[in-house]
Amino acid sequence: MQSANMFLKKILRSPVLPFAAQHGMKKDLLPLSRTLSLSLCLKQDNSCNPEEKLDLDAWKKVMKSELPEVVGETVSEHKELSTLAAARETVEMWRLAGRLVPENITEEQLKTFVECSSKSAQKKYLKFLHVRELYKKNDKRKMDEKRERRLETKEQASEADEAKRNSFICLWASCMDRAYSWRAAQSMIFGQPLVFDMSYEKDMSAREVANAVRQMVFSEGCNRRSADPFHIHFCNFKEDSLYHKEFIKHYREAWGKLLITVTDQCYTEVFPKDKLIYLTADSPKVMKTFDHDKIYIVGSIVDKSIKTGVSLARAKRLGLETAALPLEKYLLWNIGAKNLTLDQMMHILLTLKDTGDWRKALEFVPKRKYCGFVSKPVHELKKTLSLVNTLKLGKRREELQKQFAKNYSKKLTRK
């Protein structure tokens, strides 16, 4: 018995068990060692008590019931691990080959990948996992960006609150607001009138009316902050119109406190006709200088479809003088309409009123609409350009004229 125990100890201490544990065979050796130890104990018991008998049938049933289950479990687990490892290797190979494969794949997904009926089904399943992974990454990125924007808005709000809490800034803002209001009140008595024609509601959509009101709000704020503001008149203004509703949305309670004149009368009934000048881009007459004795009219229209001649026709119907800004005289204009927004017109007129300099005033024209300022009128530049072209062509000009005459004669014969 002692020799048997020594034998078992040697087996347990030997490197057989670590090797078996590494290769998934530890469960196979444990029942074997248990049977050896049990058999040796039984032999010892028989030697000590020869009268006692061993129930061999019960012992066989116990051993048969235990061993097949353990062996079957280990074999199935080993097979499953080997198939999953092979599937993971194929997925890695497909990733290296540049196919659409997810970066992270779980064991359950590997099992479904192995259970696919064909190779094309496996490819489609991996592509589905890849697309779902991309969607998750995109959602995570969007959430991070929203979080960052939220933090930025909170920081800006905190900075704005700190600025509002600053007593000096609050005092400065209130004092400047009083000064601007005082200037606007003076302009209502002594200032030069500027008329906004509010009779274009039928020619615009609801969105265009809202855009026009937004531009007039900017114009009123710019006029109120200027050194010498205009006395603004809203003529042909009707209550419960789209203009009125949009103004109330912007100003709310301050709408009744604005230092402007609002009337439903036409400007021809309020001012003499000989002093009125309608500013329109369709006018054939070009405005040369700013006249402080005249009353300029600006049409309150935002026309996305660019309906040409609407304001010019209205001015002619009323028998008013018209004028257009000298854009081509001072700017090298690009291709496009010469329509400006209402707040840009306000900036230009205020600059002309204060300085009389067209170059400073036309700096408020958007730079995308022109190439730059010109020192000479555009028609003179065109003459010089044609002269340069003729000098460059030289003797070839006669040849080109002859070729053009031949082509023109061919066209006539075809007709």
Automatic annotation (TrEMBL):
Main subcellular location: mitochondrion
- Annotated SAM-dependent MTase TRM10-type domain ranges read 180-372
Q: Where in the cell is it found?
A: Mitochondrion
What EC designation does it have?
Answer: 2.1.1.218, 2.1.1.221
- The UniProt entry's coiled-coil ranges are 136-163
TM region(s), chain numbering: none
Its UniProt entry gives the catalysed reaction(s) as: adenosine(9) in tRNA + S-adenosyl-L-methionine = N(1)-methyladenosine(9) in tRNA + S-adenosyl-L-homocysteine + H(+); an adenosine in mRNA + S-adenosyl-L-methionine = an N(1)-methyladenosine in mRNA + S-adenosyl-L-homocysteine + H(+); guanosine(9) in tRNA + S-adenosyl-L-methionine = N(1)-methylguanosine(9) in tRNA + S-adenosyl-L-homocysteine + H(+)
Its Gene Ontology cellular component terms are: mitochondrion; nucleoplasm
One GO biological process this protein is involved in is:
positive regulation of mitochondrial translation
| Keyword tRNA processing assigned | yes
Q: What Gene Ontology terms describe what this protein does at the molecular function level? A: tRNA (adenine(9)-N1)-methyltransferase activity; tRNA (guanosine(9)-N1)-methyltransferase activity; tRNA binding
Q: How far does the signal peptide extend, from start to end residue?
A: none
Decide whether keyword Transferase is in the record.
Answer: yes
* Name of the protein: tRNA methyltransferase 10 homolog C
- Species per Swiss-Prot/TrEMBL record: Ciccaba nigrolineata
